[in-house]
Amino acid sequence: MDEYSGPLHFRKVRRGDSEGIAEVCHRTGYYGEDLRGSGRFDDRRLFALLFALYYPLYEPENCFVAVDGSGGIKGYCLGALDSRAQAIRYRRRMTGRILLRALSVSWWRHPESFGELLNFGRVSSMQGGLDDLYARFPAHLHINLLPDCRRRGAGSALIALFESEARLSGAGGIHLVTSERNLEAVPFYQKLGYERERTLSPGLWRDAPEALSIVFVKGL
Ligand SMILES: CC(C)(COP(=O)(O)OP(=O)(O)OC[C@H]1O[C@@H](n2cnc3c(N)ncnc32)[C@H](O)[C@@H]1OP(=O)(O)O)[C@@H](O)C(=O)NCCC(=O)NCCS
C-alpha cells in the first residue's frame, strides 16, 4: 500500500466509519505495530469489537477521525466522558457480540485470537479496575494513527478535539492506559501534559507479560 503524505482532515465520527476504524485498530494494535499476519491476533473483527467499536456505535459524539484526501480513515481518537457509565454499557452491549464472534468464528478460524482473548480476560482481572480514578479523571480515550500519518501533528490535533469535548461536558480529567513498551505513545502523552499515575502488571499480551501497562492522567 502506498504511503500517504497529503493533507489530513479531522472530523467527528459518522455512521459508516466503523470499518475504517476497525482497520486502523488492527493495523496499530500491538504496541502501535501491525497485527495483520503476525499470528498474534489475526481476527480483526474480534479485536475491533474488543477495543474500538463500542465508541463509534454508542458514543460517536466523543469520537474523532483523521481522514485523507479521499475520505479514507487514517486514525482516530475514541473515548468516553463517563468511564463508570461506559463500563456498564460496554458490558451490556458488547459482551454478547464478542462472545458470539469468539464462539462462532474465532475459536476455530483464529485459535490464536481466541487464546489471546482468554488471556486478556485473565490479565484484566489480575490488573484490577481503575474505579478509584473515575471521580477525578472520569473520561478516557484511545488514539491510533497509521504509520504514514504519525509525527505530523495529527495525534495532537485529535486529542485536542477530544479534550475540548471533555472540557465542555464538565469532565474534570482524562485517564488512559498504554504500555511502557510503546515507545511512540509514552513520549507523546508526556509532551501533551499527561502524567504517569501507576503501572499495572502483568502486561496485556501473552508474549510480553513483563511489559507493564502504564496509566496516564491529565486534569482539565
Ligand atoms: C502515539 C501517536 C498517537 C502519536 O501521534 P502523532 O500524530 O504521531 O503525534 P504528534 O505528531 O502530534 O506529536 C506530538 C509530540 O509528541 C511527541 N512524540 C510523538 N511521537 C513521538 C515519537 N515517536 N517519539 C518521541 N516523541 C514523540 C513529540 O514531542 C511530538 O512533538 P514534535 O513532533 O514537535 O517533536 C501515534 O504515534 C500512534 O498512533 N502510534 C501508534 C498507535 C499507538 O501506539 N497508540 C497509542 C496506544 S495507547
Would you kindly provide a written description of the structure presented here, covering whatever features stand out?
- With 220 residues, the chain is of the alpha+beta class.
- The protein has a single domain (9-219), classed as Aminopeptidase (3-Layer(aba) Sandwich).
- The chain contains seven helices and seven strands, in the order E-H-H-H-E-E-H-H-E-H-E-H-E-E.
- The chain has helices at residues 18-27, 44-51, 54-58, 83-109, 111-127, 154-169, 185-191, and strands at residues 9-12, 64-67, 73-80, 139-145, 173-179, 195-200, 213-219.
- Strands 1-2-3-4-5-7-6 form a seven-stranded mixed β-sheet, sandwiched between helices.
- The longest helix has 27 residues, at 83-109.
- The protein is globular, with a radius of gyration of 17 Å.
- The structure holds coenzyme A.
- Coenzyme A binds at residues 28, 32, 143-145, 150-156, 178, 182, 184-185, 187-188, 191.
Short description:
This protein is of the alpha+beta class and 220 residues long. The protein has 7 helices and 7 strands. Strand 2 and strand 3 form a beta hairpin.
